[in-house]
């Protein structure tokens, strides 16, 4: 059998040198494999744990119009958003899953509202969420057109871009009046140290929008748009 010249040459080397070539090859192979695995390992799954906050609840109905209460619509959209984010592999939790509030017993007015909001912030921190999304509905006699509007916590880096992406996806929802995302000074936004959004999903004083907001179909479209915006932003963070 004709031997390959390099192989033949190697076989004539002393024992240590004969072992050297396989050792080098093994080292090169191991290093290459490690760097390939290492590169993959540096791309984590979507690094997010989103705390979804359906605004209001329990004693606090939020805004109301024609028998429709904000707390019920925010809860319905929140359930849809929860499902949509989970379907995209994003971990989630909700501050409430039913019609409850977290106001301290016996407190009234602004102090009960404050204790309710503090509890939602505390839950977000306790669960070590990496993003906070609070859902609301607007009602303003001064508003002459509807539309969803995204407010962001300007103290958290990257949140402006997150808000812009979510707002852009909301613009894709049929019949959506196109509003701009903007920084917000709401208590819930100021107190969070993670990217946080308050999304006003529409206006109850605009009758066509009020009718849409009360349908499961429109609630799902809003949730899908928000989830898509969140997913797009997370992809920019990898
Ligand atoms: Zn609200």
TrEMBL record:
Keyword flag Heme: no
One Pfam family recorded for the sequence: Amidase_3
GO biological process, one term: peptidoglycan catabolic process
Highest rank taxon of the organism: Bacteria
Region (Disordered): 98-118
Key words, A-Z: Hydrolase
Entry keyword annotation includes Mitochondrion: no
GO MF, any single term: N-acetylmuramoyl-L-alanine amidase activity
An annotated GO cellular component: outer membrane-bounded periplasmic space
Domain MurNAc-LAA: 121-231
CDD domains (UniProt xref): MurNAc-LAA
Spans through the membrane: none
PANTHER family: N-ACETYLMURAMOYL-L-ALANINE AMIDASE, N-ACETYLMURAMOYL-L-ALANINE AMIDASE AMIC
Protein name as catalogued: N-acetylmuramoyl-L-alanine amidase
Species of the source: Tumebacillus permanentifrigoris
Lineage of origin: Bacteria, Bacillati, Bacillota, Bacilli, Bacillales
């Amino acid at each position: 059998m004709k031997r390959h010249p390099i192989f033949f040459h190697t076989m004539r080397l002393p024992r240590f040198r004969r072992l050297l070539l396989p050792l080098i090859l093994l080292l090169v192979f191991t290093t290459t494999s490690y760097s390939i695995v290492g590169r993959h390992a540096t791309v984590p799954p979507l690094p997010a744990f989103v705390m979804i906050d359906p605004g209001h609840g329990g004693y606090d109905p939020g805004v109301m119009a024609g028998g429709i209460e904000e707390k019920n619509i925010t809860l319905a959209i929140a359930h849809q958003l929860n499902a949509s984010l989970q379907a995209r592999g994003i971990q989630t939790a909700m501050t409430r899953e039913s019609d409850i509030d977290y106001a301290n017993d016996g407190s009234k007015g602004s102090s009960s509202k404050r204790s309710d909001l503090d509890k939602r912030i505390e839950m977000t921190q306790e669960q070590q969420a990496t993003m906070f999304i609070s859902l609301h509905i607007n009602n303003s006699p001064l508003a002459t057109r509807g539309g969803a509007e995204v407010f962001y916590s300007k103290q958290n880096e990257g949140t402006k871009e997150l808000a812009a992406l979510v707002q852009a996806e909301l613009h894709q929802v049929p019949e959506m009046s196109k509003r701009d995302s903007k920084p917000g000074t709401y208590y819930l936004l100021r107190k969070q140290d993670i990217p946080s959004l308050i999304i006003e999903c529409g206006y109850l004083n605009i009758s066509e929008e009020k009718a849409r907001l009360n349908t499961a179909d429109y609630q799902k479209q809003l949730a899908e748009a928000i989830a898509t915006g969140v997913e797009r932003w997370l992809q920019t963070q990898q």
